Fold:
Amino acid sequence: MIDYDEFAMFGENISEYELRASAKPNVERISCVLSDGRTLSALKWGTQSPEITLVHGSAQNAHTWDTVSLAMGVPMIAIDLPGHGHSSWRSDGNYEPSLLAPDVATAIETWAPKTRLVVGMSLGGLTTLALASQRPDLVLSLANVDITPGVNSQKAKAITDFVNGPQSFASFEDLLARTIEHNPTRSESSLRRGILHNAKQQADGSWQWRYDRSTHPSPQDSNQRIERLAALWDVISNLKCPFTLFRGGTSPVVDDADVAELLRRKPNSQVIVVDGAGHSIQGDRPVELADALTRLMAG
Structure:
């Protein structure tokens, strides 16, 4: 069996990215019980009231932000979305942004009422757009990481091909090999850490992903979902808070047409391209993302 301590690997992040941070930062696992009995979990960084709320993408978890959090060194929370990490799975298997947004609202109200910036990546970005529509009082400034309502199955194919792969693997080495194959922009050490946070070893020595893979929508369901996501363009049109889009320089998920539509809908949006990053900018270029978020906070 491989030992796992979710707080024991920060030294690797620090060494890999040459960060000036403590290998034993002030970070703790927190949780609350939602109104329907589910548990929502998060990582709370720092001892003060969080200034930033981070929301990960599909098939990820709060630890995807570790290097960014270490690099920034400010109070923040990183949420495990329902069906991911240490948060409860939904009994209906439905992880639409509009359904996830109320849980993120509860997290902010409970743990981070002084949040100045909400950052959402991929599914987390779409969820934070839904949040800004449902609870604009909680979103003073919004940043989305490599996602717009213009996402579709073709743009996201490389990601979904990986996410929809096998659930179980005979060994950690098999799981790591597949992850490396589908994440060419990431270092092996960072992918190894990511797997340890995002998968768990079974009694027989095999490994399974932690996130909920119970639902596989039909093509018709997928098309309807894309239509519902496209409706989030109207949310962007009506946003009153500042909005920033971080676009991965090598990612196919956001294209030029998406950027043009964003600027048509909200002309004062800021678009920042992170060179050398794929879809998961926080994993590919975490220091660059941390520096840009620091500038956003200062501005």
